[in-house]
Amino acid sequence: MEFATGIPQLLKGEVTENVGTRVDSHSLRQPLGVVAGITPFNFPAMVPMWMFPVALACGNCFVLKPSERDPSTALRMAEWLTEAGLPDGVFQVVQGDKEAVDALLHSPGDRPTKAPADKPASASTVAAAAMRRTVRTA
């Protein structure tokens, strides 16, 4: 979360003049839209907190799919974010098992997805997501 609080400095666009003969370079950073995070059971608060602060600080909405073994931690985090003034719909929690994960991964649009890839089931999740969209492993 500390990194996310300093992220505005990293989000600035850049203008570089004269990178070539009569050529200037402009970069503009824009939000991706909706980012999904699929998290394991063993660190129900820590792993999501690696994911959603950066996504939110970059102007994205975040959909968290926690492990079905510990669903209450994600709901509590959603409550805290609402109490802190985060607008409705910016942080959402989706509960369920593999079917919920598959629904997230196969929904329309390009949704960047982040999931731990240290277990065979997680590896298949990452492989399925990689076939359709951007995937980063935690």
Write out key terms for the chains shown.
single chain; 138 residues; alpha/beta; Aldehyde Dehydrogenase, Chain A, domain 1; five-stranded parallel beta sheet; two-stranded antiparallel sheet; 5 helices; 7 strands; 35% helix; 22% strand; elongated
Summarize the SSE layout with pairings:
Elements: H1 2-5, E1 14-20, E2 23-27, E3 34-38, H2 46-57, E4 61-65, H3 71-83, E5 91-93, H4 98-105, E6 113-115, H5 120-130, E7 135-137
Parallel strand pairs: 3-4, 3-6, 4-5, 6-7
Antiparallel strand pairs: 1-2
Strand order of the largest sheet: 5-4-3-6-7
In one word, what is the shape?
Answer: elongated
Task: Please trace the helix and strand order, writing H or E for each element.
Answer: HEEEHEHEHEHE
**Assigned CATH class:** Alpha Beta
The CATH homologous superfamily name equals Aldehyde Dehydrogenase, Chain A, domain 1
Radius of gyration over all CA atoms, rounded: 17 Å
Strand content: 15-25%
CATH topology: Aldehyde Dehydrogenase, Chain A, domain 1
Alpha-beta content class: alpha/beta
